What we know:
It comes from Flavonifractor plautii 1_3_50AFAA. InterPro entries: LysR_HTH_N (IPR000847), LysR_subst-bd (IPR005119), WH-like_DNA-bd_sf (IPR036388), WH_DNA-bd_sf (IPR036390). Belongs to the LysR transcriptional regulatory family. The protein is of the alpha/beta class. It folds into three domains: 1-82, Winged helix-like DNA-binding domain superfamily/Winged helix DNA-binding domain (Arc Repressor Mutant, subunit A), CATH 1.10.10.10; 88-169 and 275-306, Periplasmic binding protein-like II (D-Maltodextrin-Binding Protein, domain 2, 3-Layer(aba) Sandwich), CATH 3.40.190; 173-272, 3-Layer(aba) Sandwich (D-Maltodextrin-Binding Protein, domain 2). The chain is 42% helix and 22% strand. It has helices at residues 3-15, 18-25, 29-43, 59-86, 100-111, 127-136, 151-160, 191-194, 230-239, 290-309, and strands at residues 48-51, 54-57, 90-96, 118-124, 141-147, 163-172, 174-178, 199-202, 224-227, 244-245, 264-268, 275-283. The strands form four sheets. The protein has a five-stranded mixed beta sheet, sandwiched between helices. A three-stranded antiparallel beta sheet has the order 10-7-11. Strands 1-2 form a two-stranded antiparallel ribbon. α2 (18-25) packs across α3.
Amino acid sequence: MTLQNLKYVVAVAEHGSFSAAAKALYISQSTLSSAIKELEAELGTQLFLRSNRGIQPTPDGEDFLRYAREIVEQSRALERRYRHRRYAPTRFAVSTQRLPFAVRAFQRFMEQLSWNSYDIAIRECPTYTIISDVAAGKSDVGVVALHDQYIPALEKTFEINHVTFTELERLPTYAFLRRSHPLAKRDKVSMAELLQYPFVTYDQEADRSEYTEEVVFHQIAEKTVHVSDRCSKVALVRFTDAFSIGPDLTNSNADAFHSGMGEIVAMPVEEISDSLHVGYLLQKNVAVSAAMAVFLDYLRDDIIVLKKTL
């Protein structure tokens, strides 16, 4: 008994005659009739009653058909599932903090794609979501900037989630101001001077400071503006005397496509020597694919360009 035999039996029952079933199966009626007779001989039972009025399943045939239909339908479901998969688009996804060089690297990656079909994604999201995305396989790569003092705590989080962090560069601490800001013409600024102005910061997820992508300073800002996205942060720094600290407002080739970024300048901060460790997350023990390698090369290049402009 073969799957093809089962398909023949189901077709005869559905069409009510050997001739109609043979036509639907694109085989000769004699081939179909012989196959059914051989199956009946193998089973030792008659599956169909043949008469001038057509074909009718016997009681044994009805019982056999219940199982045959289920098996045939399951085989069709498998064919649909895996035939579709053969032609499914190639997938690649990146989860990143609000980092312009990651977006630029993804843009360059997209421009060089030669795949016939693809389904790719870049997600700007909080650090803990990036870790979760990579751990679950939702994203192939996670791009993060991690604060000096929180690396030990985060290494434990990475271990628990079976992800690895590879550092590419360390970025110094800068304050970002608009070019017309009263402090913008200085060679460097102090925190006391900066804190006379509104401080724009991202909302911290889960109230856990080790997840921040900004350098943390310990003076209390009396004027604080919380945002949840980079576009709002850019607009507030660009059009007001507010300032920001972190790698996300850098004015470089990596961020050339963000309107108005040329109007924001980076200023060294006297009291802060901390740096941000910029790198990527991968699932532990997962080999780097060709797509990952290309994206990571672009990411590495754009971070180098960024560092030279600071």
